[in-house]
Amino acid sequence: MSVAELKTKLKQVESEAVAALARAQSSQQLEELRLEFLGQKGTLTTVLRGLGLLSKEERPQVGELANLVKERIVNALSARLNELYQIELNQRLAAEAIDITLPGSGHSLGHVHPLTAVTTEITNIFYGMGFTLAEGPELETEYYNFDALNTPPDHPARDEQDTFYTSAGPQVVLRSQTSTVQIRVMEKQKPPVRIISPGRVYRNEEVNARKYPLFHQFEGLLIDRNVTFGQLKGCLNEFIRLFFGKQLKTRFRPDFFPFTEPSAELDSQCPFCLGSGCKTCGHRGWLELLGCGMVDPNVLNGVGIDPEEWSGFAFGMGIDRLTMLKYGVNDIRHFFSSDLRFLQQF
Amino acid sequence: MKLSFDWLQDYVDTGSLTPYEVADKLTAGAFEVEEVLKVGSQLTGPVKVGEIVEINPHPNANKIRLAKVKIETNSDPLEIVCGAGNIAVGQRVPIALAGAVVLNRHDGSELVIKPTKIRGVESNGMLCSPGELGITCIDSEGILILEPGAILGSDVIELLHLYPDHILHVGSRSNRGDALSVLGLAREVAALCNCPLKKTLWQLPEIDESAESIEIEVENNIDCPFFSLRVLTGAKVGPSPLRLTRRLEAIGVRSVNNIVDITNYVLHELGQPLHAYDLAKLSCRQMVVRRARSGECVDTIDGRERELNEETLIIADTQRPLGVAGVMGGKDSEISDETVNIVLEAAAFQPSRVRRASRLLGLSSESSLQFERGVDVCGVRRASDRAAVLMFEICGARPGRLTYGGSDEVRPLQVALRLSQLKRLTEIDMSGDEVSHLLGRLEFNCKQTGDDLLAVQVPSFRQRDVTREIDLIEEVCRLWGYDRLPISMPAYTAAPDRPDDTEILTREAMSACGLNETYISSLTGVDPLGLGSPADDNVSLVHVLNPLSADHQALRSSLLPGLIKAVAYNQDRGAKSIWLYEVGRIYQLHGQSSARDTGVAEELHVATAIYGAQSLSTWQEQNRSAESTAQFYIAKGIVENLLTRLGIEANLVRFDSPDNSPAYLHPGRCANITYDRGDCTVRLGHLGEIHPAVSDKLNLRCQTALVELSVDALRTARKELSFAEIISTPSVVRDLTADFQQSIEHQTVNDLIKTAAGANLRQLDLVSVFQLPNGQKSLSYRLTFQDREHTLTAEAVEQHLSIIRSKLKDELSAAFRA
Ligand SMILES: [Zn+2]
User: Fold this and answer.
1) pLDDT score of B554 more than 60
2) Among A168, A170, A343, beta carbon nearest to B518
3) Is B487 within 8 Å of A234 when comparing Cβ atoms?
4) Which tens digits make up the pLDDT trace of B485-523?
């Protein structure tokens, strides 16, 4: 064949191949076409064999074209392959679509008790203010529950905490307050002291929606040089801000606890109505949150800390009450019911 | 206590302050006012005192009559139509004239009086019943009959003090016995509102020197520092006048008779309990204040016989106890309608003595509550005088001389206050003058004795709660206002210690396993599951001596009974999947108690109960394989997860069949869990399936598995995690299947393979357990071999395997099938 004939033949192969590839409907067909045109016995290969018959000068002219044609066919092949893959992929995607509104399945996480959640939250806030955790026993001697807390026998303040007595001994009670931990810590540790202590306490009171014979308190104690009432205010104001997640007004009202002096009750503006009055705050606009005060010098003397050198403050709050407030739980008994319908809400 | 705002005005001039403003001041000043209640209604005059001069029948009706009522001596009487049956000529009655506003006796609404015709007859006003005047303490449908001495034409509203009042519910404070009365709170109001106290003076009538007097003997002046008696003669005992009854009623005190009412009135007004005896009922003219003798009895006014002992202080005559000092008087000498001569007791008793008697007898009264919190010894005489004045005015009783034992003089108490100490604790920078002025409002007298020093004289009525410098500092803060104290933050002087995280990680692991956390009461019954408790279990049980109920009479010694009950509770409410856990303490007696040691061990435990499969979405439930895994192994998996989370080495933990399993666990499906610490074996806890008998008793419909571990023990088994080099030589995996007798446990096989395989066994997994028809079981293990440095050859691995096979064959009689 002449150069011209060869060139015509090449162009013809190219247009046939491109047309055939465009018509192909599956990757299988494409493979067949590849063999038909580019295979060992393929059309293009056959045409190219004719190249050997050309002269040395003519060969490059046709060779250049031949390479071009081969490249174009290869490109067309891969383009079509790609097209077909996309088509097949789209078909598969359509076929595999599922109802994504069906509920998720498999292993579920357990629920954390709301009292744990709130205890953790309060604890973390005070960690941030440099407090650390301390623990004490739930059974206590009267010494720790009362005497060391400046509440001697026959003090009427003992009546305010209906105490459970136990078979462990005549002076062994179920602690009625977490303040016992203050004494246990100060007996062991010299100041500075900065501890918090959440825990279970007991009062012999009839069960109702607001009272349960056991509940949880959160105690805080800070002893250092130059501790003032203003620092107590600052510390607790920060706690209120962080716990409720907003700046709320607070007020400190004088109160009486045997183991602090001066003592105060801390009220916070109701976080739900911001003071305008609602059901949660009994339409008062304020919530009574906790009791606090400067540690009484008698308590410090009792544990061998010199009140002229050191001073400190203490505070205590009811975790159950804060939790009820936070989640709007209307009955303290839910906390101890083990009812999954309650537990699984948190 | 309940405080009448109207009564308060007798002692302090609050000027233009409303009851609500005063309540706010009290609240801000340590006396929390829980509630302010408006009582009574606003009546408008004219309501005048009239005298009935004539009563005629009504021409047109049977049940109503025509009364002629005179309100001025020299003018014509008014004609009034009246339906009440209790009126009679000569009575003085309240008459509401045209324009007056009184109350509708049916519903308490406002009733405006105007001239009307009733059944054709003109009525020029209305005779009023107690209800129509807002008087609730007299239960009568009839017309209110006034004292014969009421002045004609005078204003009944003023006469009977028929003004609306406000009752403040003031929280009482155990350390402030001085503020349980109108006078005490008046002092507080005066100080907190900075307004003047009123000087209240009453003139004791002429003393009847001829009246009898009682000889007093006080056994010991610590129990009773001061004891006084006064005889009052010729009293007319009867109902109290309206004004007294109304005041008492407003604060919730029931009227008894005028004498008793007066003692109650003075108690609430001055904070001094009093007691009145009938002189005629005393066997002699001598009274002793002494400790009771063991076995002595007294019938108290409430009608009960009380047995006394040496701890109780009593008042007695020479023959018998007359009452328990400060708590309650005796029935025998009580005032009755026949009483003519009265013995009035006013005294001060030691608070702790009264408190002890009150607790021993289980008897408390208004009097004991006041005495327990202390009375002002200096105020005893004044209270006695006050009552004598009222008894004279109201009952016509003539007072005799006061006789007494002990002394009502109080040693002056002076407390030093350093201004620098005030500043150190409160950041208040105040001059001596400023502090003196503030404390002066509370009747504390201050004298500056140095640049930094004040000498503060504490008034007698505050000597119980103010004895130290810090007490004065509190008073300064209180009057200054806590809200005015500057705010700062504590200095950061030391970084806090890091708390142990075992408890936190335990909760995390439990929640991650899909268990729901619960809190269960640590107070429980002695045998919460009703299993008939084995005696040896109970020796270490801590009992509550004053329990609320049988369900609360002991402290739990295990978390599991509570969880088992929780499972039953939820099952009975329709739950299908009950996966619960609790982290909490258990309590066990372990030694003698002392003043500083309870002798009780408290241990932190974690326990779980699993009932049913873990909750999946309902629509997927059918996809779950029908063959359910034994709950035991699910529970065991949870334990293994927890151990991993805490970094406890699994191969040092053993699960063994216990010799003695807890009563509520299935003896064939439970395990003791221990940890080999090297030097000793630490018991971690146990797990198992619930005992079928317990399950049946509680009607559980699903197999339940239980775990209880000591968090305190887990803590001691924890290790710091450390990295092991990742080995990159190829590993060779071989399966090994062998048949065993049923009695051979997996753990034994596992241990034997491990020892036999040597150091190149990297991992050993149980892949199947298969029950054979011949009664044996087939166990398949997957062994992964790997050498740290070299590639293992097939021959080397085969050598390991053949050693293992022969060991299994020799020691456990394992059979290998072709
Ligand atoms: Zn609110």
Assistant:
1) yes
2) A343
3) yes
4) 999 999 988 888 889 999 999 999 999 999 999 999 999
